[in-house]
Amino acid sequence: MRRALTAVSTVLMLSACAASAGNAPGTTDPAATPDKGSVAAGSITLDGVERSWLTYSPGGPPGPAPVLLVLHGSGDSGAGLRSAVGPDIEQVADQHGFTVVYVDGYRNNWNECRVEGRWPAKADGMDDVALMHEVVASLGTSGPVYAVGFSSGGHMAMRLALEASDLVDGVAAVAANPRWRPTSRVTWTAARCRSCS
């Protein structure tokens, strides 16, 4: 079931990236077979902590390619999520000319926007929104930016939608529903997002 949900959400984001790249999803020029892309590691020191990511760049001429930020769940890594879903995402990236970035969370998690939770990124006040800005800036592209995340990565994508609408043009969250209690209001909201201040 998890794989099916991931596939559906990923297809939605890939469709947006493909449309932004100027190709309708599922359509390619048969005469233009793209070169196989390349993977590069990137890193930056942010607030005294080295943060890292993997960037998959499709083959073909450089240009203002759309960007898809792929955000892993708690306990995973960008490389771990890439090994699970990367081949499918990268095949579509090659066909439609968008860049894929697998970002690593701090100690394998995110300072996403749920009120509850004491995982390391939240406890240590990591500025993961600033990280996403830095990652995109490092690419030097002017194309649209999308984010897709699984579980905690989905909550991070939702945080980007709330706080970084100047950065992201769309987000998708997989298996990342806000927690709620039937007798109280939803605990994850823009108004109560304590980690966002």
Explain the overall architecture:
With 197 residues, the protein is an alpha/beta fold. The chain is built from five helices and six strands, in the order αβββαβααβαβ. It has helices at 2-20, 78-96, 120-123, 128-139, 152-163, and strands spanning 38-46, 49-57, 67-71, 99-103, 145-150, 170-174. The protein has a six-stranded mixed beta sheet with strand order 1-2-4-3-5-6, sandwiched between helices. The protein is globular, with a radius of gyration of 17 Å.
Defining traits:
197 residues, alpha/beta, six-stranded mixed β-sheet, 5 helices, 20% strand, disordered C terminus
What is the fold's blueprint, element by element?
Elements: H1 2-20, E1 38-46, E2 49-57, E3 67-71, H2 78-96, E4 99-103, H3 120-123, H4 128-139, E5 145-150, H5 152-163, E6 170-174
Parallel strand pairs: 3-4, 3-5, 5-6
Antiparallel strand pairs: 1-2, 2-4
Helix pairs in contact: 1-2
Summary?
This protein has 197 residues and is α/β, with parallel strands linked by helices.
